[in-house]
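Researcher: I need the complex structure. Ligand is adenosine-5'-diphosphate. Inputs:
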Amino acid sequence: MMIDRLARPRYLMVLWLSGCIALSGATWLCFRLGLDLSATGFVFLIVIVLLSLMDSLISSIVFSIFALSCLNYFFAEPLFSFQITYARDLLALAAFLITSLAITTLVRHIRRLGNAQREQARLLDLAHDTVFVRDMSDVITYWNRGAEELYGWKKREALGKTSHDLLQTRFPTPLDEINETLLRTGSWEGELVHTKRDGVNVIVGSRWSLQQSESGRPLAILETNIDMTEHKRAEEALRRNQAQYLAEAQALSLSGSFGWNVSRGEIFWSDQSFRIFEYDGETTPTIEMALARTHPDDVAFVRQMIDQAAQTGQDFDYEHRLLMPGGSIKHLHVVAHAVRDDHAIRRFVGAIMDVTAARLAERQLREVQAELAHVTRLTALGELSASIAHEVTQPLAAIVTNGEACLRWLGHPIPSPEEVQACVERMIVDGKRAAEIVRRVRQLTRKGVSQKVHLDLNDVISDAVSLVQHELLSHRVSLRLKLSPELPPLFADRIELQQVILNLVINGIQAMDALSGRPRELLIETLRDEQGYAVVAVHDAGSGIKPETANRLFKPFFTTKPNGMGMGLSICRSIIEAHGGRVWASNHASQDAVFQFSLPPTNVNESC
Ligand code: ADP
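Model: Output:
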């Protein structure tokens, strides 16, 4: 854009020329009218004030000096000369000059202020925000175009009205409190609800700023409002969407949520929680409602958990069952986290998960595993049948022998009651021995899922090896037991552990079948490890574990035996893992294979 450098001098020349002509005209008129120095000076002042509206200080000075010259020449004694005879004329001329300059400066200042205000108002009109000013009685003194557009009232309609009445303002807190903050801090911000001219409500983000005099006296309030209605609507829609997604996710995962304000005794359930408990979503949830659905066998436990959480304020995590009105059973997993706020109010937020399907699947799996374990136990017993038969036949043969001896003593011409009693006592001992073997075999044929009891692992080992005595003899294997008296107490299924031990012992015996030139020794050792776990190790002197098969030993159906099933070690693993332990194999010393398993000590909760 080209700037015309001569425009300003040209304007000044024209202004000064026309100003001087105007002042000359005024001089001629006053002279003709015979006005004196003071009256003419007054007329000049009017002309100079009008001229000063058109330009800067320089122009005012130029016009004032020209007017002063005219006054001096035409109206001060001696006339038509620039000399001054009387001091009063000199004084009048000086007063004229000072007044002229002062008034023109003042006029220009007022003009500049007016311009600045107009510019501010123009800028406020350009802004999209609504801006209005109200005095301390809330009467509107300024109303910008943004306010006209938002509220529908024109400036002339709004000015002079009380803003809160015109806009039917709804405040978030009492107006007195807001005004108190405004006067104390000089500003206030918050959300207001205003009513437009057409009766529609708008939510605005409002900012009030207090205008004060230099002495700090409150003069007016500048209120800037931004229309937040759309933003709020979008926020609400988003919140509704999120709530909907959450509800759908909860329905999909069969997980409900809850809130529990212990201090106030208030409970909140999500829709899915209502569905899990099968209550109408309109009801107000209570702890008693949850207990009413709890399985009668679990009520005492759940009540204890709730009381404990309320008293200690600690997180909780437990499972229990529900007995639904139709007779069906649900398994629930409840997890809650304690939340403490500033006012020390005890609250919990948590989730209720319907884990019925998972628990049923687990039960089915346990049943299938138990079935499989039963079958493999029967298979192992089949393998041991000769040995077991021998274990039973031995005491039976002894009973027969003692019975015959008894008869012989009774048929003796001089019967000896002492000998007969000794024979009968031996028969009783042998009878009990045979019965005990039969009892143990019957135990092993038991069918059903795990039944955990407190037991002594060394006893379990002794029971198991009593069934393989003949097996050991027939394979020329010597058994050594190194049982530690320091074992931790265990909570486990006796039959399952016997099965594991029998399986490891039979495998050990079979592994030494091809052994020649070395003693066939099987060592069963028990110990307590550093973590307090009970460990059982079965050492044999066979050919050891081949590196290429080491990682497949515990896999189902892995076998290297011609008639093997490959299920023994796999079942051992599932039994031990179901007891919270682990099983592993390694080669010890030169080639000896060691199969070991460890079991955790009794867990107080477990045994309850
Ligand atoms: P099965 O006895 O029917 O083969 P197992 O699961 O009991 O099934 O054993 C799987 C395989 O592990 C065996 O076939 C054998 O190769 C290996 N194994 C088991 N015990 C021993 C052992 N004490 N020494 C060497 N290998 C063994």
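Model: Summary of the prediction. The first helix runs from residue 7 to 33.
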